[in-house]
Amino acid sequence: MTNAVEAHYDLFAQREWERLERHRMEFAVTCRVLDEFLPPPPGRILDVGGGPGRYAIYLTWLHYQITLVDLSQASLDLALAKATEAGVYLPPPLQANATTLPADFEGLFDAVLLMGPLYHLMALEDRLTALREAYRVLRPGGLLFAAFITRFAPLRDVATHSPQWVLEHPRRYHRLLHDGQNPAREDSTFPDAYFAHPDEIAPLIAAAGFELEAIQGCEGLLGGHEEAVNAVEGELWEAWVELNYVVGRDPSLRGAADHLLAVAAKPVPALD
Q1: What burial class does residue 35 get, using C-beta atoms within 10 Å of its C-beta: 0-12 exposed, 13-18 middle, 19+ buried?
Q2: Residue 259 in contact with residue 115, Cβ under 8 Å?
Q3: Virtual CA dihedral for 176, 163, 4, 130, nearest 10 degrees?
Q4: Per DSSP, what are the bridge partners of residue 212?
Protein backbone atom coordinates (compact mmCIF):
# COMPACT_ATOMS: atom_id res chain seq x y z
CA MET A 1 0.00 0.00 0.00
CA THR A 2 1.37 3.42 -0.96
CA ASN A 3 1.89 5.67 2.04
CA ALA A 4 1.47 9.45 2.06
CA VAL A 5 5.18 10.24 1.84
CA GLU A 6 5.64 7.92 -1.13
CA ALA A 7 2.58 9.36 -2.87
CA HIS A 8 3.76 12.95 -2.35
CA TYR A 9 7.20 12.40 -3.81
CA ASP A 10 5.81 10.29 -6.66
CA LEU A 11 3.70 13.32 -7.57
CA PHE A 12 6.41 15.94 -7.09
CA ALA A 13 9.65 14.18 -8.09
CA GLN A 14 10.54 16.88 -10.64
CA ARG A 15 9.90 19.65 -8.12
CA GLU A 16 12.17 17.88 -5.63
CA TRP A 17 14.92 17.74 -8.26
CA GLU A 18 14.49 21.47 -8.90
CA ARG A 19 14.46 22.32 -5.18
CA LEU A 20 18.26 22.26 -4.98
CA GLU A 21 18.45 24.62 -7.93
CA ARG A 22 16.31 27.09 -6.00
CA HIS A 23 18.38 26.45 -2.86
CA ARG A 24 21.88 26.34 -4.34
CA MET A 25 23.63 27.17 -1.07
CA GLU A 26 22.20 24.14 0.72
CA PHE A 27 23.51 21.86 -2.03
CA ALA A 28 26.91 23.56 -2.31
CA VAL A 29 27.63 23.55 1.43
CA THR A 30 26.41 19.96 1.81
CA CYS A 31 28.76 18.88 -0.99
CA ARG A 32 31.62 20.68 0.78
CA VAL A 33 30.89 18.68 3.94
CA LEU A 34 30.79 15.43 1.97
CA ASP A 35 34.11 16.32 0.35
CA GLU A 36 35.58 17.12 3.79
CA PHE A 37 34.62 13.91 5.59
CA LEU A 38 34.25 11.12 3.03
CA PRO A 39 37.19 8.79 2.47
CA PRO A 40 38.69 8.91 -1.03
CA PRO A 41 36.77 7.05 -3.75
CA PRO A 42 35.91 4.37 -4.58
CA GLY A 43 34.06 3.90 -1.30
CA ARG A 44 30.61 2.32 -1.06
CA ILE A 45 27.89 4.83 -0.20
CA LEU A 46 24.23 4.16 0.54
CA ASP A 47 21.97 7.12 -0.23
CA VAL A 48 18.79 6.50 1.78
CA GLY A 49 15.84 8.65 0.74
CA GLY A 50 17.96 10.33 -1.92
CA GLY A 51 14.91 10.90 -4.12
CA PRO A 52 15.74 12.02 -7.66
CA GLY A 53 19.46 11.57 -7.05
CA ARG A 54 21.13 14.97 -6.72
CA TYR A 55 23.75 13.71 -4.28
CA ALA A 56 23.92 10.22 -5.77
CA ILE A 57 24.82 11.67 -9.16
CA TYR A 58 27.35 14.10 -7.66
CA LEU A 59 29.09 11.29 -5.77
CA THR A 60 28.97 8.93 -8.76
CA TRP A 61 30.69 11.64 -10.80
CA LEU A 62 33.43 11.61 -8.11
CA HIS A 63 33.79 7.81 -8.67
CA TYR A 64 32.13 6.54 -5.50
CA GLN A 65 30.05 3.36 -5.67
CA ILE A 66 26.50 4.50 -4.96
CA THR A 67 23.42 2.55 -3.97
CA LEU A 68 20.34 4.78 -4.06
CA VAL A 69 17.17 3.78 -2.21
CA ASP A 70 13.93 5.69 -1.77
CA LEU A 71 10.24 5.12 -1.10
CA SER A 72 9.21 6.90 -4.30
CA GLN A 73 9.56 4.91 -7.51
CA ALA A 74 8.89 8.02 -9.59
CA SER A 75 11.84 9.72 -7.89
CA LEU A 76 14.09 6.73 -8.56
CA ASP A 77 13.04 6.67 -12.21
CA LEU A 78 13.88 10.37 -12.47
CA ALA A 79 17.27 9.75 -10.83
CA LEU A 80 18.15 7.23 -13.55
CA ALA A 81 17.07 9.68 -16.25
CA LYS A 82 19.08 12.51 -14.71
CA ALA A 83 22.15 10.29 -14.36
CA THR A 84 21.91 9.43 -18.06
CA GLU A 85 21.65 13.15 -18.89
CA ALA A 86 24.76 13.78 -16.78
CA GLY A 87 26.67 11.01 -18.53
CA VAL A 88 27.25 8.88 -15.43
CA TYR A 89 26.25 5.31 -14.67
CA LEU A 90 24.00 5.02 -11.63
CA PRO A 91 23.30 1.39 -10.66
CA PRO A 92 19.59 0.52 -10.66
CA PRO A 93 18.20 2.03 -7.44
CA LEU A 94 16.00 0.17 -4.99
CA GLN A 95 12.60 1.05 -3.57
CA ALA A 96 12.98 0.70 0.19
CA ASN A 97 12.03 2.25 3.52
CA ALA A 98 14.63 3.94 5.74
CA THR A 99 13.32 2.06 8.78
CA THR A 100 13.63 -1.39 7.15
CA LEU A 101 16.65 -1.53 4.88
CA PRO A 102 17.45 -4.84 3.14
CA ALA A 103 18.86 -7.45 5.52
CA ASP A 104 21.82 -8.22 3.24
CA PHE A 105 23.08 -4.61 3.45
CA GLU A 106 24.53 -5.26 6.91
CA GLY A 107 28.07 -3.86 7.27
CA LEU A 108 28.45 -3.19 3.54
CA PHE A 109 28.88 0.58 3.35
CA ASP A 110 31.59 3.11 4.05
CA ALA A 111 29.04 5.91 4.38
CA VAL A 112 25.28 6.37 4.61
CA LEU A 113 23.42 9.49 3.54
CA LEU A 114 20.17 9.93 5.45
CA MET A 115 19.14 13.26 3.98
CA GLY A 116 15.36 13.30 3.84
CA PRO A 117 13.73 10.46 5.78
CA LEU A 118 14.07 12.08 9.21
CA TYR A 119 11.87 14.98 8.01
CA HIS A 120 8.85 12.69 7.83
CA LEU A 121 9.23 10.36 10.82
CA MET A 122 6.97 11.84 13.47
CA ALA A 123 7.76 9.45 16.33
CA LEU A 124 11.09 9.57 18.12
CA GLU A 125 11.29 5.77 18.03
CA ASP A 126 10.92 5.79 14.24
CA ARG A 127 13.71 8.35 13.89
CA LEU A 128 15.90 6.20 16.10
CA THR A 129 15.01 3.13 14.04
CA ALA A 130 16.12 4.85 10.82
CA LEU A 131 19.40 5.89 12.45
CA ARG A 132 19.97 2.38 13.84
CA GLU A 133 19.34 0.91 10.41
CA ALA A 134 22.00 3.24 9.03
CA TYR A 135 24.31 2.06 11.84
CA ARG A 136 23.60 -1.59 10.97
CA VAL A 137 24.54 -1.26 7.32
CA LEU A 138 27.76 0.70 7.98
CA ARG A 139 31.13 -0.96 8.43
CA PRO A 140 32.96 -0.07 11.70
CA GLY A 141 34.36 3.42 11.26
CA GLY A 142 31.81 4.21 8.54
CA LEU A 143 30.24 7.65 8.36
CA LEU A 144 26.66 8.87 8.67
CA PHE A 145 25.41 12.10 7.10
CA ALA A 146 21.95 12.81 8.56
CA ALA A 147 19.94 15.89 7.61
CA PHE A 148 17.33 17.66 9.72
CA ILE A 149 14.96 20.56 8.99
CA THR A 150 15.15 22.94 11.93
CA ARG A 151 12.22 23.83 14.16
CA PHE A 152 12.25 27.45 12.99
CA ALA A 153 12.55 26.90 9.23
CA PRO A 154 8.80 26.63 8.51
CA LEU A 155 8.13 29.77 10.52
CA ARG A 156 10.66 31.71 8.45
CA ASP A 157 8.91 30.39 5.37
CA VAL A 158 5.46 31.56 6.45
CA ALA A 159 6.92 34.93 7.51
CA THR A 160 8.06 35.33 3.91
CA HIS A 161 5.11 33.88 2.03
CA SER A 162 2.00 33.87 4.26
CA PRO A 163 2.46 35.79 7.53
CA GLN A 164 -1.27 35.49 8.33
CA TRP A 165 -0.71 31.75 8.94
CA VAL A 166 0.15 32.29 12.62
CA LEU A 167 -3.34 33.74 13.22
CA GLU A 168 -5.15 31.30 10.94
CA HIS A 169 -3.55 28.20 12.52
CA PRO A 170 -2.69 29.05 16.13
CA ARG A 171 -2.87 25.46 17.43
CA ARG A 172 -0.62 24.19 14.64
CA TYR A 173 1.82 27.05 15.19
CA HIS A 174 2.08 26.39 18.93
CA ARG A 175 2.39 22.63 18.44
CA LEU A 176 5.19 23.11 15.94
CA LEU A 177 7.10 25.26 18.41
CA HIS A 178 6.42 22.84 21.26
CA ASP A 179 7.27 19.48 19.71
CA GLY A 180 8.16 19.99 16.04
CA GLN A 181 5.07 18.13 14.80
CA ASN A 182 3.33 19.33 11.64
CA PRO A 183 0.71 16.68 10.76
CA ALA A 184 -0.63 16.54 7.22
CA ARG A 185 -3.62 18.77 6.51
CA GLU A 186 -6.64 17.77 4.46
CA ASP A 187 -6.19 20.86 2.24
CA SER A 188 -2.52 20.11 1.47
CA THR A 189 -0.64 17.41 -0.43
CA PHE A 190 2.34 17.65 1.93
CA PRO A 191 2.60 14.64 4.27
CA ASP A 192 3.38 14.55 7.98
CA ALA A 193 6.52 16.55 8.73
CA TYR A 194 8.84 16.76 11.71
CA PHE A 195 11.06 19.76 12.44
CA ALA A 196 13.95 19.17 14.83
CA HIS A 197 15.14 21.52 17.55
CA PRO A 198 18.90 22.02 17.12
CA ASP A 199 19.53 20.89 20.70
CA GLU A 200 18.02 17.44 20.13
CA ILE A 201 20.33 16.37 17.32
CA ALA A 202 23.47 15.43 19.25
CA PRO A 203 21.59 13.33 21.85
CA LEU A 204 19.62 11.56 19.11
CA ILE A 205 22.77 10.68 17.19
CA ALA A 206 24.39 9.37 20.39
CA ALA A 207 21.30 7.32 21.29
CA ALA A 208 21.67 5.46 17.98
CA GLY A 209 25.25 4.49 18.89
CA PHE A 210 27.17 6.99 16.77
CA GLU A 211 30.05 9.29 17.68
CA LEU A 212 29.25 12.82 16.52
CA GLU A 213 31.88 14.48 14.33
CA ALA A 214 30.19 17.76 13.33
CA ILE A 215 26.91 19.60 12.89
CA GLN A 216 26.77 21.89 9.87
CA GLY A 217 24.21 24.59 9.12
CA CYS A 218 23.73 24.08 5.39
CA GLU A 219 22.54 27.63 4.69
CA GLY A 220 25.04 29.19 7.10
CA LEU A 221 23.54 32.57 7.89
CA LEU A 222 21.41 32.77 4.73
CA GLY A 223 18.28 30.93 5.95
CA GLY A 224 15.39 32.93 4.49
CA HIS A 225 17.79 35.46 2.92
CA GLU A 226 19.30 33.54 0.01
CA GLU A 227 17.65 34.98 -3.08
CA ALA A 228 20.28 37.59 -4.02
CA VAL A 229 23.24 35.32 -3.27
CA ASN A 230 21.72 32.43 -5.23
CA ALA A 231 21.69 34.66 -8.31
CA VAL A 232 25.45 35.32 -8.34
CA GLU A 233 28.12 33.27 -10.10
CA GLY A 234 31.85 32.75 -10.29
CA GLU A 235 34.23 34.15 -7.69
CA LEU A 236 31.48 35.91 -5.76
CA TRP A 237 29.43 32.70 -5.49
CA GLU A 238 32.45 30.73 -4.30
CA ALA A 239 33.17 33.39 -1.67
CA TRP A 240 29.65 33.08 -0.28
CA VAL A 241 29.84 29.28 -0.27
CA GLU A 242 33.07 29.48 1.71
CA LEU A 243 31.60 32.02 4.15
CA ASN A 244 28.49 29.94 4.84
CA TYR A 245 30.52 26.74 5.06
CA VAL A 246 32.68 28.33 7.77
CA VAL A 247 29.98 30.08 9.81
CA GLY A 248 27.63 27.11 9.41
CA ARG A 249 29.81 25.19 11.86
CA ASP A 250 29.18 27.83 14.58
CA PRO A 251 26.78 26.37 17.19
CA SER A 252 25.24 29.78 17.84
CA LEU A 253 23.86 29.84 14.26
CA ARG A 254 22.21 26.41 14.20
CA GLY A 255 18.71 27.79 14.65
CA ALA A 256 19.31 30.26 11.82
CA ALA A 257 19.81 27.46 9.27
CA ASP A 258 16.88 25.74 7.58
CA HIS A 259 18.81 22.45 7.32
CA LEU A 260 21.34 20.98 9.72
CA LEU A 261 23.63 18.16 8.62
CA ALA A 262 25.02 15.89 11.33
CA VAL A 263 28.18 13.94 10.54
CA ALA A 264 28.85 10.95 12.77
CA ALA A 265 30.91 7.75 12.83
CA LYS A 266 30.11 4.18 13.72
CA PRO A 267 32.69 3.32 16.41
CA VAL A 268 35.47 0.89 15.66
CA PRO A 269 35.49 -1.93 18.27
CA ALA A 270 38.42 -1.79 20.65
CA LEU A 271 41.11 -4.44 20.20
CA ASP A 272 41.33 -7.02 22.98
Answers
A1: exposed
A2: no
A3: -40
A4: 264
Task: Please enumerate in sequence order all residues whose Cβ is within 8 A of that of 163, keeping only pairs 6 or more positions apart, or say none.
Answer: none
Residue 268 exposed, middle or buried by CB count within 10 Å (0-12, 13-18, 19+): exposed
CA 168 to chain centre: 30
How far apart CA 134 and CA 262 sit, in angstroms, is 13
**Positions in the chain short of pLDDT 70:** 1-2, 187-188, 272
Q: Which residues contact 75 (CB under 8 A, 6 or more apart)?
A: 9, 10, 13, 16, 51, 52, 53
Taking CA atoms, 245 is separated from 99, 126, 215, 221, 234, in Å, by 30, 30, 11, 10, 17
Q: Measure the CA angle with vertex 255, ends 250 and 257; round to 5°.
A: 80
Over residues 128-181, the pLDDT tens digits come to: 999 999 999 999 999 999 999 999 999 999 998 899 989 998 998 899 999 999
Residue 256's nearest CA partner among 212, 226, 214 is 226
- Residues 179, 18, 222, 27: is their CA dihedral positive or negative? positive
